[in-house]
Every structure is written in structure tokens, then in C-alpha cells.
Task: inverse folding
């Protein structure tokens, strides 16, 4: 299993004579970029760590036989200097004396490691841009960033550079997306590039995969992650990483859509949610779907964050998510400084100004640090209670399309804080999360994320494997019909509003439920259920006249709507219309018996 470096042909060299015109320079740079990025700029170093020989028949082959993989340049491989995204780190460190145990586990499983990939400078950042090694090119959106910190890893998988080996495992054969790559995720370093490059990305539960032989970034948050394009390979390799047995696919009992998180999206929200809703309906049935406001749920449960909010002007729900993101950033900066401040002070490396500014943002006091650590435990406990053993939470992975290269957008405080609102949910709770691609919008990848409680990795992986094909099918249907905010049918938008209204009703937010049911009615005036549901909310508010009117409208639309008769009877009773109330209740009883007999007969 000793690593060896394969020989490579010398790079093509462009010689420019007479570079007086800016146009010539620009064209040359473009041409040069195309030539020097034959591997999309994904790799820092090519190498090989070979697996042991396969066992002779009739013994089964190693579980990962024939697969090739690469690792981010934060993992140790014996005989090579771990570069950590900066040439000064390479200059001031010796070659690794041993290979990271997680790499050895995958190699022992039959896979071949073929190289190290580019990461952000000191693995610090989410853009994937690195001035020292150049920025890997996003294969699906070349003018946009690939995302970081594990940018090269995501690009290598998305471009098909590291593929399934069809015959000789010592050669990487270009196949159809069966590669997998390891990366490092503290605040989104695997999930974000997965979203930007349109591939599967897995952040396991915190502490479930060994970090030995990996340069630390933020020890309280660091997790070894996984990229792949193929859901079957993804599922298989993840089980090897986690050292959990294969078994029958488990199914979730609830799939919860965090509506407030989707409100952060900068692309049409309805189209993304519709792909999800239709996929869940087709795979498991609508009964599993629930809506919730994650910020509202977390707010009373994260007491430590109250001391970090400092009177923010945002609403309480958004304030909670922003405070959680702030706590994650503070913890991340503090632990990074603790790990690497001595090296930075002694070596004085040239750092990107933005990274320098972020690193130098320290926590104000020890109390704030204690609050951040307490918030981690509170977030894990809150999500454990929410998701239990069989729940899946769905949020966007990123805010929308990948930012353009060299754009200031990704450096803005608002963009970072809103992005971290999403990534902090799993980072601060230690929950497991998978980024899932769901199509293309404006020539760029779109994704969403599934989250399961800490330790429920097997359920999460099984859910992704079960739903992946259906999600892709619905995404393709959406793209073919030019799915956009304007092309979502009014009926579909009305159903989304109704589901949100149902969630508000269950949370006893009566006025919010009424507003959402009203939105549904405006979009589809011919649905009796919307009127009947709004009537139920009006009853809770004591608005009996409005409830009676809504029930009457519902009955006019659907003469067999039993709930509308019952609710109108209740409203009339409260208004003192006792005779009409009794007549209505009697009619609803006879309808109920009729429906029961009919259903029984059909069954």
C-alpha cells in the first residue's frame, strides 16, 4: 500500500511575443486557463495508494473493489507533505510519517487513492477560491465558484476525473460518476461545494468518523465528509466510513420542511419545494409531510443564545437562526486561532485579506465562549426531540446559485450570515446531513439537504437512497416544463399555502393559519377544504360569523364535506341558532355514516 507518484507529461507552455494589447492578454489568459486546467484544477498532487490483492474465489471481493478516490489536502498520506491549502505550510512542515486511518480503511476495503485535491487557504472559507493554487473550475457553472473548503474534491467528482475502474484497479477509467472523494466539513466545507457543484455530499454525525491524521480546523465542529455522484456508491462508501452493517432500507415516519429556512432562498422557493413534495408523495405518501418554522421551534430551547443576540432587530425566528450562525462562526474562529495562531505568528504567511480579517475576529469574553459551547448541546437536544429516531428535516443547502468568481457577494456579511444560518443547524447540533442535487436553474445547480438526528446516519443514508431517483425524476420534469416561480400552477401554490396553514394551526397560531388559508383561497377559490380549514381557525379565534360563512362556502363547493357541516353546526350553536345547528349536525352524522359504509364497501 506504499504510495507512488505516476509520471505526467510536461504542461503545454504558451509563449507570448509582444503583449501590448489588453485584448490579446485577456484571450491568452483564457486559452492558458483551458490548457492548464485539464483536470479542472482539482488536484494538488496525483499519487496512488493501492489496495491489497483481492481474495481468491469463491471468497467475496473487497466491498470497495474497483473504486477510486481522492482526498482533500488536509489528510495525511505517508511520504507526502500535507499542504493545507498554502505553500508556506508545505515549506515549513515535514512529510507525514503515517497515513490517515480513514484512508487506510477505505484502501483496505478495496479502493485506490489517486490524489490530493485543492482546498481553500488553510481550509478556511466557503468560496473554494485559492490564490496560491488557483481556483478549481466548477464543471457545471464555470463562471461561478465551486464552493469550499473542499473545492477540489467536489470539482473532481462533478467533472468525472476520478471514476469507477472497470478492469484494472491501478488505472482510473473514465466511467459514469462512480467516484467518491473525502473532504473536511466544519461550517459547510463539504455540504456547500456539494451544493454548488451539483453532487451528493455527506456530513456524518459529529464524532462518528475518526479525524486522526487530518489537520484540525475547528475541533468542536470538524467532521470528515464524503462526495459522490452515484447514490449507490455513496451509500456503500458511507457505510464503510461509519463502520455500520448493511441491511434493509429504513423509511422515515416524518419529513419536516423548515419553511423559514426556505424563505432565505434567493431562487424561486415554490419550485424547489414542489420537487420535494411530489417526490415524497410518490415515494412515501403525503402523510409524512409536515411544515414547521425551525427558528420558532428552537427559540425557547436555546437559552444560551439569548446572551448572544444583543437586541437584534430581526424577528425572533430569524434572530434565533442568526444567533446560532453567529455562535458557530465565533466558535470556529476561536478554535482555528487556538490551533494555528502560533504557526501564523512565527511564519507570517501571506494570507487572503478576508481570511485574515475573519481569523482576527475573537470572542469578546469567556462567557461568550461558554455560551457557544452550551448552544451546541442545546441544539443537539432540541433536534433530537424534534426528529427522534425516524424524522428527517429538510432545508436548503445554500442560498441559491453559486456566486460568480471574484464577486464581492460571497464576502458580504449578509451572505455569510444567511449561509451559516443553514449550515449551523447540523454543525452546531452534530447532526448528520446530506446535500442532494435537484436540477438546474439558470445554468447552475440547485440542491436541498436532508438532516437526521445525531447518530441516525443509517436512516439518513437509507432515505437518500430511497428518494434519490424520484427526486431526479421530478427535477427533470420540472426543468422540462421550465419550472419557475411564474410557472408554478396556482393549485400547487395553494396546496403549499394550505400545508403551511395546517402547520400554523397545529402550533395554535390561529391568525397566521387564517392568513395562510386566505392565501390558498385566493389562489384556488374552488377548493372546499381551504374554506373549511379557515373556518376551524376562525372558531378558535371566536369569530363565529366568519366561521359559519366559510363553512357555507365549503358546503356549496362540496355537499359531502362532513367537517364543514360539523364546524358550521358549532358556529351556529355559539351564535344561538340552535335549530339550524341541530339540523346541520344531524345531516353531518348521516353523511358520516354514508361515507363510512361507502368506504367499507370499497375496501
Result:
Amino acid at each position: 500500500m506504499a504510495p507512488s507518484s505516476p509520471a505526467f507529461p510536461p504542461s503545454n507552455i504558451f509563449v507570448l511575443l509582444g503583449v501590448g494589447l489588453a485584448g490579446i492578454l485577456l484571450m491568452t489568459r483564457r486559452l492558458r486557463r483551458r490548457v492548464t486546467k485539464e483536470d479542472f484544477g482539482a488536484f494538488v498532487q496525483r499519487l496512488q495508494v493501492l489496495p491489497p490483492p483481492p481474495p481468491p474465489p469463491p471468497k467475496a471481493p473487497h466491498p470497495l473493489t474497483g473504486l477510486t478516490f481522492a482526498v482533500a489536502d488536509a489528510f495525511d498520506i505517508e511520504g507526502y507533505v500535507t499542504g493545507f491549502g498554502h505553500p508556506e505550510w508545505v515549506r515549513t512542515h515535514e512529510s507525514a510519517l503515517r497515513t490517515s486511518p480513514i484512508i487506510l480503511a477505505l484502501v483496505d476495503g478495496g479502493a485506490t487513492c489517486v490524489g490530493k485535491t485543492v482546498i481553500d487557504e488553510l481550509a478556511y472559507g466557503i468560496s473554494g477560491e485559492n490564490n496560491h493554487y488557483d481556483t478549481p473550475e466548477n464543471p457545471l457553472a464555470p463562471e461561478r465558484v465551486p464552493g469550499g473548503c473542499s473545492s477540489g474534491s467536489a470539482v473532481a467528482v462533478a467533472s468525472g476525473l476520478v471514476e469507477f475502474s472497470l478492469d484494472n484497479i491501478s488505472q482510473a477509467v473514465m466511467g459514469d460518476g462512480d467516484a467518491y472523494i473525502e473532504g473536511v466539513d466544519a461550517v459547510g466545507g463539504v455540504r456547500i461545494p456539494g451544493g454548488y457543484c451539483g453532487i451528493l455530499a455527506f456530513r456524518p454525525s459529529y464524532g462518528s468518523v475518526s479525524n486522526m491524521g487530518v489537520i484540525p480546523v475547528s475541533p468542536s465542529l470538524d467532521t470528515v465528509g464524503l462526495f459522490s455522484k452515484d447514490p449507490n456508491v455513496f451509500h456503500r462508501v458511507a457505510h464503510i466510513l461509519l463502520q455500520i452493517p448493511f441491511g434493509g432500507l429504513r423509511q422515515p415516519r416524518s419529513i419536516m420542511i423548515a419553511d423559514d429556512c426556505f424563505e432565505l432562498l434567493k431562487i424561486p422557493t415554490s419550485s424547489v419545494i414542489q420537487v420535494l413534495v411530489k417526490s415524497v408523495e410518490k415515494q412515501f405518501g403525503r402523510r409524512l409531510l409536515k411544515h414547521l418554522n425551525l427558528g420558532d421551534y428552537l427559540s425557547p430551547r436555546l437559552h444560551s443564545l439569548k446572551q448572544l443576540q444583543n437586541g437584534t432587530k430581526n424577528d425572533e425566528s430569524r434572530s434565533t437562526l442568526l444567533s446560532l450562525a453567529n455562535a458557530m462562526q465565533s466558535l470556529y474562529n476561536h478554535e482555528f486561532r487556538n490551533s494555528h495562531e502560533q504557526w501564523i505568528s512565527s511564519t507570517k504567511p501571506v494570507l487572503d485579506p478576508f481570511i485574515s480579517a475573519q481569523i482576527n475576529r475573537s470572542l469578546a469574553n469567556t462567557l461568550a465562549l461558554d455560551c457557544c459551547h452550551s448552544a451546541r448541546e442545546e441544539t443537539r437536544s432540541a433536534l433530537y426531540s424534534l426528529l427522534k429516531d425516524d424524522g428527517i428535516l429538510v432545508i436548503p443547502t445554500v442560498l441559491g446559485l453559486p456566486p460568480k468568481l471574484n464577486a464581492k457577494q460571497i464576502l458580504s456579511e449578509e451572505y455569510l450570515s444567511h449561509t451559516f444560518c443553514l449550515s449551523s443547524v447540523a454543525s452546531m447540533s452534530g447532526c448528520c446531513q446530506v446535500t442532494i442535487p435537484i436540477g438546474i436553474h439558470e445554468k447552475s445547480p440547485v440542491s436541498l439537504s436532508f438532516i437526521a438526528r445525531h447518530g441516525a446516519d443509517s436512516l439518513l443514508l437509507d432515505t437518500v437512497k430511497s428518494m434519490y431517483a424520484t427526486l431526479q425524476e421530478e427535477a427533470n420534469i420540472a426543468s422540462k416544463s421550465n419550472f419557475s416561480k411564474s410557472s408554478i400552477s396556482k393549485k400547487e401554490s395553494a396546496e403549499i399555502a394550505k400545508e403551511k396553514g395546517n402547520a400554523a394551526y397545529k402550533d395554535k397560531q390561529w391568525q397566521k393559519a387564517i392568513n395562510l388559508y386566505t392565501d390558498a383561497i385566493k389562489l384556488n377559490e374552488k377548493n372546499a377544504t381551504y374554506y373549511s380549514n379557515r373556518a376551524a381557525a376562525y372558531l378558535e379565534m371566536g369569530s363565529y360569523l366568519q366561521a359559519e360563512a366559510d363553512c357555507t362556502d365549503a358546503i356549496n363547493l362540496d355537499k359531502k364535506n362532513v367537517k364543514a357541516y360539523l364546524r358550521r353546526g358549532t358556529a351556529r350553536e355559539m351564535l344561538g341558532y340552535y335549530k339550524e345547528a341541530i339540523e346541520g349536525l344531524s345531516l353531518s352524522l348521516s353523511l358520516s355514516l354514508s361515507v363510512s359504509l361507502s368506504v367499507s364497501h370499497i375496501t
